[in-house]
Specification:
49% helix, mainly alpha
Length: 93
């Protein structure tokens, strides 16, 4: 096609080719979808195209986000920025 490569390619020729596939899928009752590099922007674009399948991240990406969130909570707890659940009995999980 002669367009840049990438998951969220916005080149007009690429966008038109993807839409052609989506339209063919609709005509034949076949779900269409595409991997995306980021969640919100690209997912909104895929929903607008009426795609039924568009993973917003990889397993590794989701695991990384979860671990980073937990580590941020630990850091905040060590710095005294989180509420102390032990005052009212706390929570087990």
């Amino acid at each position: 096609m002669g367009v840049p490569i990438g998951l969220d390619n916005k080149h007009p020729d690429h966008v038109a080719a993807v839409q052609k596939v989506v339209d063919a899928g609709k005509r034949h009752g076949v779900f269409t979808g595409a991997h995306t590099a980021s969640g919100e922007e690209s997912s909104r674009r895929r929903i607008t195209q009426i795609m039924q399948w568009f993973p917003i991240s990889s397993d590794a990406g989701m695991l990384k986000m979860g671990v980073e969130g937990q580590l941020a909570d630990v850091k905040a707890g060590l710095e005294g920025q989180l509420d102390d659940d032990s005052k009212d009995g706390g929570t087990f999980y």
